[in-house]
Amino acid sequence: MEESGCQRLQTWRPPSRGSSELSLKHYEKWIVSIENDRLSAGDLSTDGQSAVNVPDAMSPRSFQGSPPLDIATIKDFLRFKASISEGRIDEELERATADSLNAFAEWFFAEFARVTGDSISKEDRQEVYDWVRNTLTRDGLVVNKKKPKHLFGEKGFTRFTIIFWTVDDKTITHPRHKVQIPFVLSVFFKIAARIGAFFPEKKTDSKKGLQYRDIELVLLRIPSGGWKAIYRIDQRWVKNNRDPENVVYGSFYPLAGGFANTVCLGRFGAPTSQHGTLLHDDTQFPLALAIADHAIWGVNPLDDLWQLQIPDGNDELPLRSNDSVLHLPILRNATMRDGVTNEPLPKRTFDRILKSVVNLSGFFGPATVHAIQRFVGKKVNTRYTEAERSQHVLQGDPRVWVEFM
Asked: Are strands 142-143 and 96-97 parallel, antiparallel or unpaired?
């Protein structure tokens, strides 16, 4: 039997209180509808009681002290929920999926236990999950379908970049987006970050987003003479982190390194060669943004950058950010009407541009940051063993990186 994700649960922690409360409200409405059906049928046991409604019938407080639910009642309720659900994956009949109904049941169990203090046993919960997956599927009330999980990889990124630079797309409302979008998309491919790490989802999250204090640019001496740039991005808004000072420090990446040439370096390490494909060379993006924002200390016009020299005896020259821009978003909202603002680029703007260009490029399936994460994860899993992946994360010896990369 396929193992249900619910089977591994020890305690219930719904993704949001709103989801669990909504499940209990559905239960209240179901109970009230049954009671009203009895009243309308003229059940004499009601003693002439008038019809009831949700507000005065069963508020969450009224569940306190209620007896534990029996399995039959839970199954009847879930059958009712399945009958009124409108699924999105089953496009023909719009039935809910077994996974979504089981997730709803999980939320309901959590909220009922929170309100009443009575938990449904693990065995009873598992019986319900199996019943939904088997019986309700056989009865045609739910379907055992899953949303296809597409990968957005190198070929998709190449097509995206070609269309991005050659087609006039109306969703790109400012020239700054021509720099920001390919830069951050390349970063997603390199570190497989969550979209929330760089884009605030709400207007009230104006302090979130990728800021100059989260990126370090370094000029690294190369054997042939001159220098090349590398950078490191630190993530403040990793999953479940609510403390902006709790930083997950990243590793340094050669700015011109493509997907296969991304290198983690103990300090600055030995850089790889320049990427041979111009489409995958993101060197100009972070430097262009920093210069446009006057973010690099001592570098104002672009010519100042080319005049920089790495001191004799050193192999690197860190580019310090001005204190005035440390909390300034790198990815910023910009329109032709308002110009470049100091507000972070909204997630919805990035999504809109990504979706539009991807559609123009003929990519099959929705291109999302999750699709990029799946692509990067599969690449890592097929290339390295578990022990090697652990060393990539923790090892500081550059000889180890050269051996494994």
From this structure: parallel
